[in-house]
Amino acid sequence: xTKYIVVAGGVISGVGKGVATASIGKILQEYxxxxxxxxxxxxxxxxAGTMRPTEHGxxxxxxxxxxxxxxxGTYERFLDIQLPRTNNITTGQIYRTILEKxxxxxxxxxxxxxxxxxxxxINKRIKESTxxxxxxLVEIGGTIGDYENIPFLLATRSLKREVGKDSxxxxxxxxxxxxxxxxxMKTKPTQMSIKLLEESxxxxxxxxxxxxxxxxxxxxxxxxxxxxxDSEDVISMPxxxxxxxxxxxxxxxxxxxxxxxGEKVLKKLKLEKKKNPDWTSWKEKVSKxxxxxxxxxxxxxxxxxxxxxxxxxxxxxxxSEALKHAGANNDTKIEVSWLNSKDxxxxxxxxxxxxxxxxxxxxxxxxxxxxxKINTIKFCRENxxxxxxxxxxxQFAVVEFARNVCGLVNANTTEVDxxxxxxxxxxxxEQKDIYTKGGTMRLGSYKAILQDSxxxxxxxxxxxxxxxxxxxxxxxxxxTILENKGLSLCGKSPDKKLVEFxxxxxxxxxxxxxxxxxxxxxxxxxxxxFDAFVxxxxxxxxx
Length: 543
Ligand code: GLN
Fold this sequence. Notes:
Rossmann fold, single chain, alpha/beta, binds glutamine, globular, 21 strands
């Protein structure tokens, strides 16, 4: 029978529940258990697809085409598993289902009520997500005390009654501030959060204490005394970033294990470990992240840049993480610079690109800064500078090649110029059909067939599956024109209509894909294209 671990957050939002959840999952995997994870988002959107990335971070795409919260990405990167879209539950989905059932008459005349119908639907979904896994982690978004997450707390309380107290535990992740005027770590907000959680009938089994520094014995004891939680179940989870700190989230499972969290959790769940953890390879990767031998300078040329650093980084988090995974694998620190493509519309700014060992053009939408991206790609092509294009990045690589090599004046994507004389990137008639029928994009995992090429040698396979999130495609009318001028369309859909990968022969590294390989990168298995890109950038670095 599946055991459940529910993770909720107290005191402040952004306390690190996602990393905590993923880290606990990683620890339990090391003890030999199969683990899955569910993210609950208490908002009314049915999924994250309609949310602005600058507001809510990156939209994560699952294999089965779901557009979900980015925490699913955190779980996949730590756990090296593929989660289905149903593992992201939102309030919107719950209410939609209940209301649809009500309209169909499925409730057979009953009064449909918040209790019991909403928690029942929540638990039905949680149980469906567990499949055949030994342990299911359930992260409840938001902060204890929010009105919004009460239904989910009530649901997990009743799930505990249903499955038994040895089969479901609650973990509360809190924050312990150190006010600068007293320079002392305060436990009061944590005590208050525990109290708030208890108002929902839940007594937490563990408290994970986030804070600038580690929690000392005195404070653990204080939480025990005031909140009735054994001090050994009060676990310290100090900040990982700052001077002298590891500066990588991947160290968190190791730090939690220092406090024996794995065995303590197993004891509460009445589980015997299936094997002894072997952290050798994880530790090796983490040590390469902390103390790499080399340094590689990568520029990411995109938009979303005038919103401030924080949201910018969050909207491209999968790319940053995929670069870190590749960096750890190649023993190099990746120093990322975020360049505004608008600034590169002025050609006199292009030579600054030579400062970098490699350039990435990431995915994107709309027309702002596109000429800067095209200039960047031309510069990479002509100056043998390693280039990796992701989705929109592939589309502009094709536009650039069409204009400057094939001589197709004003070639463009119809997303930017609907009147272009050469719509090298366009919505294909087959796609138009899907979109008018309510589909929004080509989403999720698609198969590509690779011909002999650098890309094929990187993937070491003829067939690859990568995830997609886009509307436009390389226009088949131009395939031969592009190929005749030397652009290798080296990966296509099985029916050969859609271009999935392109590369330029006789270039250090000039590869682009219509997919988003960053969605399948984990610390233990870096995405092959990112890995090869970083390897080339490092080996050929002139810096
Ligand atoms: N805007 C482009 C499209 O819709 C690319 C999308 C992306 O980069 N994810 O096809």
